[in-house]
Amino acid sequence: LPDLKDKVAVVTGAGSGIGRAAALELGRQGARLVLVDLKDERREQVKAELAAMKAEAVTLDADLSDPVRVQWAFDEAARAWGRLDIVFANAGINGVLTPIEDMKPEDWDHTMFVNLKGTFLSVKYAIPHMKEKGGSIIITSSINGSRVFSNFGMSAYSTSKAGQVAFAKMAALELARYKIRVNVICPGAITTHIGENTHSTPELRKIKIPVQYPEGSMPLEHGPGKPEQVGELVAFLASGASSHITGTELFIDGAESLL
Ligand code: NAD
């Protein structure tokens, strides 16, 4: 039977890719959802997909880098359903991909604000609503934040993703006293819309990137993973089946990071 019945889950970046797939899986397992995203139609579409499977959801418009909006979103989420048990802090961007010498300070900041500060804000403003009963927080980092540093132009992205891993571990330590578990997932390449948020520069395209392994091939399967595969991992980490797992970094990459 679904383990997540009556639980309330906030998913950030819920309108697309990994966030959408996780929201659908959490809904399938009985959770009530709060879908946070910048993009209106995508958020509403996921709400309709959930409704089609008889899962309930509310949608909220918030830019994760804006403290006022993030606090509002978590307060509103808890108000809408009367509780908060699960947070999937997932929204993220590739941002501007360019070598360090060409990186504009404001482009560096933008990636940090969305990916890293957005994660901090999501956890910070969830705590007041979770500290009495406990719960589970899952953060989306990347293999780029932990062991794959092969691409030119990804210094800001990789730094933000590495920061999320360190932050998740500190949060796990601090929040254990409230029985809030915090884990961080590190996907390899997954088929999503993230490329739409990527701004590559002509300088970058001129550089020959030292590729460590044949593009698109992975030991476990040919080509990238599917968002649904990540959604299942998120539901596991949200559920009681992972009750003794916290502060852990989980790779979900078909062994891409071992190449
Ligand atoms: P995606 O672009 O398909 O979805 C991301 C969603 O986040 C979008 O709906 C977007 O509107 C939303 N979003 C972006 N900035 C936001 C902001 N400031 N406030 C609120 N919402 C915002 O991308 P995805 O691939 O599903 O990415 C989800 C997470 O997975 C990201 O953190 C990304 O770094 C990580 N990731 C993705 C891959 C991959 O290959 N796709 C690999 C490793 C890690």
TrEMBL record:
- Coiled-coil annotation: which residues? 36-63
Family, according to the entry, reads as follows: Belongs to the short-chain dehydrogenases/reductases (SDR) family.
Q: Which GO terms describe its biological process?
A: bile acid metabolic process; fatty acid elongation
- Matching PANTHER family, A to Z? 3-OXOACYL-[ACYL-CARRIER-PROTEIN] REDUCTASE, CHLOROPLASTIC, SHORT-CHAIN DEHYDROGENASES/REDUCTASES FAMILY MEMBER
Q: Which organism is it from?
A: Paenibacillus mucilaginosus 3016
A molecular function annotated in GO for this UniProt entry is:
oxidoreductase activity, acting on the CH-OH group of donors, NAD or NADP as acceptor
Protein name per the record: Short-chain dehydrogenase/reductase SDR
Give the Gene3D superfamilies listed for this entry: NAD(P)-binding Rossmann-like Domain (3.40.50.720)
Keyword set, alphabetical order:
Coiled coil, Oxidoreductase
